[in-house]
Amino acid sequence: MNRVGVALIGCGGISLQNHLPGLALCPQATVVALCDTDAGALERARRALDVAVITTRYEDILRRADVQAVILATPNVSHAPIALAAVAAGKHVFCEKPIAMNLAEAERMCAAARQAGVRHMTAFTYRFVPAMRYLAHLVRTGQLGEPCHFRACRLQDWGQRAIGWRQVARLAGTGELGDMLSHRIDYAHLLVGRVDRLAAATRRFHDQREGQPSDLEDWAALVADFTNGATGVWESSKVATGRGEGAHSQDYVEVNGTEGSAVFQLEHPHELQVARRGEPALRTVPVPAEFLKWPGSPRDPAQGDPLISFRYDQDFEFIQAIVEQRPCVPSWVEGAQAQAVMDAAVTAARERRWVTVPSL
Questions:
Q1: Domain residues for 260?
Q2: pLDDT-based confidence at 2, cuts 50/70/90?
Q3: Within this chain, do residues 118 and 215 fall inside the same structural domain, yes or no?
Q4: How many structural domains comprise the chain?
Q5: Chain-centre distance of CA 315, in angstroms?
């Protein structure tokens, strides 16, 4: 396939800020249709793109022969139904995270995509940060030795600001767990491996956000054992006063291995802190040029905001996987693996006990 007609299902900020600039990197891709149940969001996207085909019904999109792929950026509750319908229609699907409301849905999505032979991708955006790519390389090539400890901390200050459908359980499934911690669970899978068992705690500090009811957690923490014997600790919060929002807030990952340690901070996407065994302290090292962009991406890493532009490479990966007829990285399998941990965390927090994470 040399040309890929793409439809955006869900035309909010994620699609306009992340996916459209990413698709612009792909000469084989053309946005041919837009879909959103919100007429205002649909019109804003139409003006930004000047796309003729717009609709509030995703079923209309899936019947179109000029649509080979869809990017799904809707509330979590609709991910599985729309994704399954898209796969049944033979479309390739790039789905925002978390890909489903629970593991059973995620596994159905994986099975359907595998049977249909379509490409499927999970929007674990931060895998594409140059420093995360380099950290994964250090771990994979044994430069840190065997991983002993993993820790991740994501702190933001949203106060009592409303966050729309993300604060509604029937639409989002989970709060901070699925919104922010899901990315950091994926970090752990990428850097260390499968989580074996975990304990968890969640807390909701605001029952209302700007006068709108909130019935989901705004803080979550996990402690875990990995199948390879390493330990893991995660914390994520929307109520960390003074930490700010977005890329400038705390996003910290550390891996301690038998031969060295490395620290990733999103605020510094082109560098790591590293210490080898025998060295007295961490030192800052630049990310080598080969890790500054995704393989084959035409993006110039010296252009644009480095805290934003790495996100565009995920769309390049999606389109290239379709053109090259190979699996996407990361696929829905990685999305389902994260969902397995999230489901276990929900149970562990509710029942206040250690829970074994099911394998797929």
A1: 126-304+338-351
A2: confident
A3: no
A4: 2
A5: 12
Give the residue from 171, 222, 168, 170 showing the smallest Cα distance to 196: 222
CA–CA distance, 250 with 246 (Å, rounded to integer): 9
CB count, 10 Å around CB of 335? Answer: 26
Query: Which tokens in the block code for residue 345?
Result: 């965390």
Which residue has 């022969």 as its token pair? 65
* Partners of residue 121 on adjacent β-strands: 94
Average pLDDT over every residue of 355-359: 96
Relative to beta strand 29-35, strand 53-55 is: parallel
CATH of the domain at 231: 3.30.360.10
| Nearest Cα residue to 218 out of 268, 266, 154, 261 | 154
Give the CA radius of gyration of the chain: 20
CA 65/CA 120 separation, integer angstroms: 19
User: At 50, is the pLDDT very low, low, confident or very high (cuts 50, 70, 90)?
Assistant: confident
Q: Say whether both 106 and 141 belong to one domain.
A: no
Residue 1 clears pLDDT 70, i.e. is over it: no
Please say whether the dihedral angle defined by the alpha carbons of residues 102, 104, 105 and 109, taken in this order, is positive or negative.
Answer: positive
- Of 39, 36, 27, the closest CA to residue 7 belongs to 36
Under the banding of pLDDT at 50, 70 and 90, the label for residue 48 is: confident
232 shares its domain with 344: yes
Strand partners, 198: 224, 355
